[in-house]
Amino acid sequence: MRMQIQEKKEGRLPFLTAVGAACLVFAVMQGIHDNYGILLQGIVEHSSISYAQVSLVIGIGQILYGATQPLFGMLALKRSHAFVMLCGLLLMAAGLIVTPFCRTLPALLLFFGILLPAGTGAFCFGIIMGAIAPIIGEERAAAVSGIVQASAGIGDAFMSPALQALIDWRGIGLCLPVVGFPILLMLPVAVWLGCRRKKAEKPAGGPGQGGESLPGILRAAFRGPECWLLLIGFSTCGFHMSIIETHLFSQYVSEGIPGNIASYTLTVYGVATMAGSVLSGFLGRRLKMKTVLTGIYGMRVFIAAGFLILPKTVPFAFAATALLGLNGDATVAPTTGLISRRVGVARMAVVYGAIFIGHQLGAFCSALLGGAAAGGPWGYSALWLADLVLSAAAAAASFLIREQ
């Protein structure tokens, strides 16, 4: 009896350590990625590059963030997750440290629009979950995915006011290097995750190993309608999320809300994201995942309507941002759950990365449209109107998914 208790404790320690390490790495990456909107204003003032041009750079970065994910997923299968995470750390650090020295559009595009987003792509949700899947077990993956995704809210909650305070204090020239150097301290955690995964894998190699190619995995995944419907929903999700990450802070400031208060609304967003992600993960174990997805996208229709018709006061900003947080990252757990059921955990990072390209194409359109619409007659209302229509389409596509 005592030996059984000891075995349970020994089995629980690697599980808890793996989940904690995954949450830490993902929180740092997502805390940077979700706060491009705060960095945008600082870069415009520091470099004299226009708002529309920086929005374009962010939009291109959104595409690369998605496009690199299936490539990193295949690289993780061929080499190791530790190797992919090492590449990601170096790219993120380079992008953050050098960006303040970029005074021209091509230089900014290279470091802030290419290197930094590619580095964050190496720490995408699919890579992180693929790294810990052999440790946590497939039966606990759905619940753990909600917990890991919720850690993004921790990153947002701490990074949003911290970045704004640093920019107000010394500008973007000091803010980004200060954030960039600690990224390198994540190296031991990332290497441990990758090495621990390698030890936990079976020697024979599971599905997705060996001679499988990227086109072959994707052909098998998209043979039925399910992944196509997920792609439709996730593309509209990217459009919605880019409004929050890129333009929401600027919209609040343009409505007369002080910058420090606007940054605290993003802290509320981060906290609400944690609650929404965990709730989504556990609901996915009790309800059909397509039902959870349909509800999340449907909720966005009503939030977008609120931004169109209600005055943008401080109470509205906090309440609306909290609602945005509750369903912001909540789509990830049911989406990855549906993917892993169809293709298996080993291939999930590859297929999720491919679907995430659609997410980032939507994000690119949102970043670009927001940059153009900000000075137009409709202002940010054009973004929310498009978001309302696309969210309704995503809810309909999710409802049509056939779930086994």
Describe it.
By secondary structure, the chain is an all-alpha fold. The protein has helices at residues 2-33, 36-47, 51-78, 81-98, 105-121, 125-136, 141-170, 172-183, 187-200, 214-221, 226-254, 259-286, 289-309, 314-328, 332-343, 345-373, 381-399. Helix 2 packs across helix 3, helix 3 runs antiparallel to helix 4 and helix 6 (125-136) packs across helix 9. The longest helix has 32 residues, at 2-33. The radius of gyration is 20 Å and the shape is globular. It starts with a helix and ends in a 5-residue tail after the last helix.
Short description:
By secondary structure, the chain is mainly alpha-helical.
| Oligomeric grouping of the chains | single chain
Q: Count up the helices.
A: 17
CA-based gyration radius: 20 Å
Mean pLDDT across every amino acid position: 82
Q: Could you tell me the number of beta strands?
A: 0
Question: Portion of residues in helices?
Answer: over 70%
Helical/strand content category: mainly alpha
Largest sheet: none
Question: Which percent band covers the strand fraction?
Answer: under 5%
Terminal CA distance reads: 39 Å
Low-confidence stretches: 1-10, 202-210
- The outline comes out as globular
Order of helices and strands: HHHHHHHHHHHHHHHHH
Properties at a glance:
mainly alpha; 404 residues; disordered N terminus; single chain
Topology:
Blueprint: H1 2-33, H2 36-47, H3 51-78, H4 81-98, H5 105-121, H6 125-136, H7 141-170, H8 172-183, H9 187-200, H10 214-221, H11 226-254, H12 259-286, H13 289-309, H14 314-328, H15 332-343, H16 345-373, H17 381-399
